[in-house]
């Protein structure tokens, strides 16, 4: 299908056709238009990213879908085609095995298809009379997601969030309320220097004292440093936030040791496992998260190592009663008499009111793959990263950052960068990344991390989340990087 076949034809479009609700009948035709646009856009792009850099992308995108508010509408088909085509042609496409910069996963087809259902039915998860079945599905799924973390506990629970940022915010909110109930000093949060920025921001939003930052030599929180920090915080209510899968390096804090130190000081532990949480699906990899069960709450995302379209976040808590501070009554959503008459009360399961049924795509994915399928897919990503690391180690023109491979993240840089002084070396690393972006050939991340000598250096970052990437994909990627580091690309 070509652009030309989408020319508006006012003669055949009913004036009010665009205002049709999303019935299966109305959607079937538009869905096929959207899928055509996805295919045409991907073909026009021809790689993981549109070539040409920001200005060319902006010009092309505007040509395909501006003006966004025409005086007279184009009709549904042309509008869907134009917007979808523009979005696809100009996408950073995580389904391309060379799009590996961020914790930005290729969404599974099964999840995307189920997400269409969420859009079409539009259940809103804030009251039973908007989401009778979706509420049940959420109850079943959150019970399973809570079990994944807290298998041994009598009554764990989990809520669905928009992602790690919201999960961390809610975790800190619940901890603040527990501290407030003791009537003493305000909650002191302690975070690793390796923690995600959302933890510090949550403390700021919640009006908590500035978090104490704990040393992370080698990228992991030091139990001895935590011990000293807690001794200095002296006695007030404290929440230690550890990380299982750091954003820059995919490293996992020593959870059993940190849990023990926190316990000695009477502090609580929250684990931000936004990245690493899904390791729990795998019997082989779950031991890497040993100790996580000591946490009072755990953040994990399924739109990273869980292949969901954004958003799919989880906050698991060790006991359902820990969610009580979220309880809230609004007469129009969950009046007491309705609740007494047996209508389930959903409002207390989020800080949001209207809420998308993100659980539908999660439910479809978990049923499609099963626990073992989730495990195998996580293992594929982890194993691919180990292979990639070995390939870097064997490559004469590249150097891997020494140390363990973090979950599915590998840091490396051209050996040529090491031969230069620090500043010029970092500039070479940055230039290689930008050149590949501008060519639309590869989307690599960057990470500025301290080396053993205490100096910060810039690294190329690869975050492997592709469920089907192969050794050949990775070889091609290494070849690209090595070529770019050697000098300007041949004309
Ligand atoms: C991605 C990430 C977050 C933020 O999660 P969002 O889903 O982007 O809101 C928080 N913590 C860690 C460790 C992360 O990797």
Structure description:
With 491 residues, this protein is α/β, with parallel strands linked by helices. 43% of the residues lie in helices and 12% in strands. The chain has 15 helices and eleven strands. A seven-stranded mixed β-sheet has the order 1-7-6-5-4-2-3, with helices on both faces. Strands 8-9-11-10 form a four-stranded antiparallel β-sheet. Strand 8 and strand 9 form a beta hairpin. Helix 2 runs antiparallel to helix 3. It is globular, with a radius of gyration of 25 Å. The chain binds pyridoxal-5'-phosphate (PLP). One of its GO terms (molecular function) is aromatic-L-amino-acid decarboxylase activity. Belongs to the group II decarboxylase family. One of its GO terms (biological process) is carboxylic acid metabolic process. Pfam families: Pyridoxal_deC (PF00282). Its cofactor is pyridoxal 5'-phosphate.
> What does the overall shape look like?
globular
Low-confidence stretches: 1-13
Strand content: 5-15%
**Largest sheet descriptor:** 7 strands, mixed
Which ligands accompany this protein?
pyridoxal-5'-phosphate
Oligomer: single chain
- Taking the alpha carbons of the first and last residues, their distance comes to 32 Å
Task: Give the count of helical stretches.
Answer: 15
* Secondary structure category: alpha/beta
Q: What is the residue-averaged pLDDT?
A: 93
Along the chain, the helix and strand elements come as: HHHHHEHEHEHEHEEEHHHEEHHEEH
The value of Rg in angstroms is 25 Å
Helix content: 40-55%
Major sheet: arrangement of strands = 1-7-6-5-4-2-3
Number of distinct beta strands? 11
């Amino acid at each position: 299908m070509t652009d030309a076949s989408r020319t508006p034809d006012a003669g055949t479009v009913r004036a009010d056709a665009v205002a049709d609700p999303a019935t299966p009948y109305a959607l079937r035709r538009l869905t096929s238009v959207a899928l055509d646009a996805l295919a045409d856009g991907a073909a026009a792009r021809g790689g993981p990213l549109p070539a040409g850099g920001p200005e060319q992308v902006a010009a092309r995108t505007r040509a395909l879908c501006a003006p966004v508010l025409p005086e007279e509408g184009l009709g549904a088909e042309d509008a869907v085609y134009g917007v979808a085509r523009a979005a696809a042609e100009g996408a950073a496409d995580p389904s391309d095995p060379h799009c590996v910069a961020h914790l930005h996963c290729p969404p599974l087809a099964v999840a995307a298809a189920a997400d269409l259902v969420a859009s079409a039915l539009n259940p809103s998860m804030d009251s039973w009379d908007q989401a009778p079945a979706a509420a049940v599905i959420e109850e079943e799924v959150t019970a399973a997601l809570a079990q994944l973390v807290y298998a041994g506990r009598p009554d764990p629970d989990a809520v669905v969030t928009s992602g790690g940022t919201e999960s961390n915010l809610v975790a800190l909110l619940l901890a603040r309320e527990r501290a407030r109930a003791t009537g003493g000093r305000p909650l002191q949060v302690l975070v690793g220097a390796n923690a995600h920025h959302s933890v510090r921001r949550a403390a700021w939003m919640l009006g908590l004292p500035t978090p104490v930052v704990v040393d992370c030599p080698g990228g992991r929180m030091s139990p001895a440093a935590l011990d000293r920090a807690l001794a200095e915080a002296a006695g007030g209510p404290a929440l230690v936030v550890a990380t299982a899968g750091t954003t820059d390096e995919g490293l996992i804090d020593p959870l059993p040791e940190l849990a023990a130190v926190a316990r000695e000081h009477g502090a609580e532990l929250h684990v931000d496992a936004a990245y690493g949480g899904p390791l729990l699906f795998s019997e082989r990899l779950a031991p890497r998260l040993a100790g996580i069960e000591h946490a009072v709450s755990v953040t994990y995302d399924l739109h990273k190592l869980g292949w969901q379209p954004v958003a799919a976040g989880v906050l698991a808590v060790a006991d359902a009663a820990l969610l009580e501070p979220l309880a809230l009554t609004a007469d129009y959503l969950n009046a007491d008499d309705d609740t007494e008459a047996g209508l389930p009360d959903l409002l207390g399961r989020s800080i949001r009111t209207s809420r998308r049924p993100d659980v539908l795509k999660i439910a479809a994915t978990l049923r499609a793959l099963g626990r073992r399928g989730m495990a195998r897919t996580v293992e594929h990503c982890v194993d691919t990263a180990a292979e990639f690391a070995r390939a870097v180690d064997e490559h004469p023109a590249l150097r891997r950052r020494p140390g363990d491979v973090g979950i599915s993240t590998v840091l490396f840089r051209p050996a040529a960068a090491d031969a230069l002084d620090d500043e010029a070396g970092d500039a070479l690393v940055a230039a290689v990344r930008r050149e590949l972006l501008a060519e639309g050939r590869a989307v690599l991340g960057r990470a500025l991390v301290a080396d053993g000598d205490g100096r910060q250096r810039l690294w190329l970052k690869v975050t492997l989340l592709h469920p089907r990437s192969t050794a050949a994909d990775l070889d091609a990627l290494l070849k690209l990087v090595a070529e770019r580091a050697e000098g300007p690309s041949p004309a």
